[in-house]
Amino acid sequence: MPTSFPPRCDRTEAWTELRAHFERSGRRFDVRQAFANDPRRFDALGVEAPEVFADLSKNLLDADALALLLALARECRIEARRDAMLAGEPINATEGRAVLHTALRAPRGAGPHSAQVHEVLDAMLAYAERVRDSATSGIRDIVHIGIGGSDLGPQMAVLALQERAHPAIRSHFVSNVDAHDIARVLRRLDVKSTLFIVASKTFTTQETLTNARIAKDWFVAQGGRGIASHFVALTTNVKAAAEFGIDTTFPFWDWVGGRYSLWSAIGLPIAIALGADDFRCLLAGAHAMDRHLATAPAARNLPLLLGLLDVWYRNFHGFATRCVAPYHQGLARLPAYLQQLEMESNGKRVDVAGEPLPHATSGVIWGEPGTNGQHAFFQMLHQGTDVVPVEFILVRRAAHDFADSQAKLLANGLAQAQALMLGKTAEQALHERVPTAAPDIDPAVLARHRSFPGNRPSTTLLLDRLTPRSLGALIALYEHRVFVAGALWGINSFDQWGVELGKAMANDLLPRLASGDTAGLDASTAGLLTRLRAA
Ligand code: F6P
Questions:
Q1: Does residue 470 have its Cβ closer than 6 Å to ligand 1?
Q2: In this structure, which of 193, 362, 441, 497 has its CB flanked by the most CB atoms within 10 Å?
């Protein structure tokens, strides 16, 4: 392996020791017993980070495992890799690029590329404020057209902070090349009061360009005048945006990954919805978490600990998925956002040197807001055959005045984490009255159905309120956790070659759908294509 690549997790002594520890006791670790043995467990495994308190105590983790995981981080030289990222070294080696989303939220003069970052930020926020002055701008509807990283972040953030959004401007998000998506939005618009934002890092993405063309054609067909005041582009490819016919452009740079771009000009819909001050607070929250990553000691460094926990669960316990359960309706799109962030970043099967990996990388991230998820898939989390670590996100204070609902929401979130951990024995179940049970069922059989294994791990992330600042910190926390896990696994978390094959094949199949040409196709694709063309 070239010396420029730091040690991979599986080539360290700590890895071997972790394996031995897992076989010795980690596999049979019982968190209930751990609490019984250590009354200080909650304090020891409660971690304060900016805007976020994390309770790690319900995880399948003892002091020895934690010490070995921290040793793993040291052997993999995570701190040096973090510093390389923050300094703008080209750690995205396959694309020869720096990874500098942190520079986008650094205060003026404090980070790399500060002058250009703040020049665009100032211009973008001034533009957002002009649009927000709806009496003068005349804008009532914003249609943000983008996909993946150019959509998920802004969409998630605008929904999360909806209570603070401009009351007279509606935000719409269109991403899918399935035109049902844009059609449902266009039906609701008035051409004179609509602003289309075309967001694409590359300005070559099929879905976004197709939807942007539909929007432009609709605009002209509706008698719209002045593309310059009704279309704006957010892109690194200013030339392509101009060729498309959009002159108002806010640029960003190739050192901003798509899934890390909501802090850049891609955040314009957030700035329009919330205003410049709130957008700056979002950046400030993320920056505070950046500083935490950069300076907190390893044992209290939350992104580091979460990344280590991900490796512990994925590579030792063999857990293949992680459920994200935000107990806040505003965070409904957070799981979708995290799916791209984590799975596009760390869903890799070769290391930075291109060597096939002997260990698993990204698991499946999924979830739904609580309490909805409780009435859907939590059955499986409690009694299914797979163990799924759950991440509860609880927000202490609501943005509404319905105190009773908020108390019920929090009680439910707490209870689910508690129930996953404590479980219920068949013996306990045997002594319960169950009016809904079949009258003639054997009580011992019923008790087995009604028992819960418990010892199912969860992490609780606690926010005081969902604000621009706390949301910024929360997202940055996830970004850095993904960086840590990817660095331990030895992969490049910042490329995404895996999305290309399907794109190329779609380009090949598109004309075949029209012509019916199936030459050279596999039999399944040919058969389906023929059926799709059938009258
Ligand atoms: O196909 C995946 C991807 O390249 C993502 O990484 C990216 O966020 C998304 O497509 C959109 O790309 P663009 O912003 O260039 O349109």
A1: no
A2: 362
